[in-house]
């Protein structure tokens, strides 16, 4: 079965990994985590006008700086041929990218202790799908940027890289084999980042006000 023959947004996953609110101005953050996501859900987020909505996922990550809840959306764009994945993940049947010219991603990570949030986006990513026969699995890598936050994470900047692997627990095609693809998937990941927190320890509420 070749999923790219059908309308599909593919699983969402991916993973930024950091937790806000720390006294240090610059943090080196290492995280492991897991997510579950939905493909085929109508979110009405379609930035490239291809008629396929961005997918959504949520999960949790455990970092050397604490724990955080993750919520994200992404548009992975199918590639006409398998190129990069030949070296990254042998046996790939479908390749998807996010970069400066195609696709997009945004994520919110909420610290479980403070409630402070960190915002991020994937700047370059490759997802390799192994979709010839069930179970449908995938692997990938992504580079991301930190683009702000709330509370002591307000004004946060930085960058990092994530590695992930996952599989579809259930999938189907609305209206039969020729219909749009939908699926429910799980993913696990690791991520490493350097994060700059200009408001760490200042007690800011994210709006420039002191608590």
Give an account of the 3D structure.
The protein is built from 1 helix and 10 strands, in the order E-E-E-E-H-E-E-E-E-E-E. It is mainly β and 211 residues long. The chain has one domain (3-183). The protein has an 8-stranded antiparallel barrel with strand order 1-2-3-6-7-8-9-10.
Helical run tally? 1
**How much helix, percentage-wise, in residues?**
under 10%
Largest sheet: 8 strands, antiparallel, barrel
Radius of gyration: 18 Å
**What is the average of the pLDDT values?**
84
Model regions low in confidence, pLDDT < 50 over at least 5 residues: 4-22, 204-211
- In terms of DSSP E residues, the strand content is over 45%
Count every beta strand, where a strand is a DSSP E run of 2 or more residues: 10
How many domains, as an integer? 1
Helix-strand sequence? EEEEHEEEEEE
Structural class: mainly beta
Shape: elongated
Could you give the distance between the termini? 56 Å
Tell me the strand order in the biggest sheet: 1-2-3-6-7-8-9-10
Characteristic terms for this protein:
eight-stranded antiparallel β-barrel, disordered C terminus, single chain, mainly beta, 211 residues, elongated
Layout of secondary structure:
Layout: E1 26-39, E2 55-63, E3 66-75, E4 77-78, H1 85-88, E5 94-98, E6 104-111, E7 117-130, E8 137-149, E9 157-173, E10 181-196
Antiparallel strand pairs: 1-2, 1-10, 2-3, 3-6, 4-5, 5-7, 6-7, 7-8, 8-9, 9-10
Task: Offer a quick outline of the entry.
The protein has 211 residues and is an all-beta fold. The chain is 2% helix and 51% strand.
């Amino acid at each position: 079965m070749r999923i790219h023959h059908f309308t599909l947004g593919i699983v969402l996953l991916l993973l930024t990994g950091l937790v806000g609110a720390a006294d240090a101005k610059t943090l080196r953050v290492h995280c492991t985590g897991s997510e579950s996501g939905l493909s085929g859900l109508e979110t009405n987020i379609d930035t490239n006008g291809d008629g396929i909505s961005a997918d959504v996922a949520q999960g949790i990550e455990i970092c050397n700086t604490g724990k955080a809840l993750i919520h994200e959306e992404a548009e992975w764009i199918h590639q006409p041929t398998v190129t990069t994945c030949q070296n990254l993940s042998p046996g790939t049947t479908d390749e998807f990218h996010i970069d400066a010219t195609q696709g997009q991603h945004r994520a919110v990570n909420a610290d479980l202790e403070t409630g402070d949030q960190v915002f991020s986006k994937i700047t370059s990513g490759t997802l390799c799908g192994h979709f010839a026969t069930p179970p449908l699995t995938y692997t990938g890598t992504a580079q991301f940027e930190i683009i702000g936050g709330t509370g002591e994470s307000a004004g946060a900047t930085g960058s990092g890289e994530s590695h992930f692997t996952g599989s579809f627990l259930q999938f189907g095609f609305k209206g039969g084999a020729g219909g749009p693809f939908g699926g429910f998937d799980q993913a696990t990941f690791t991520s490493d980042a350097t994060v700059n927190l200009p408001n760490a320890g200042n007690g800011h509420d994210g709006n420039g006000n002191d608590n």
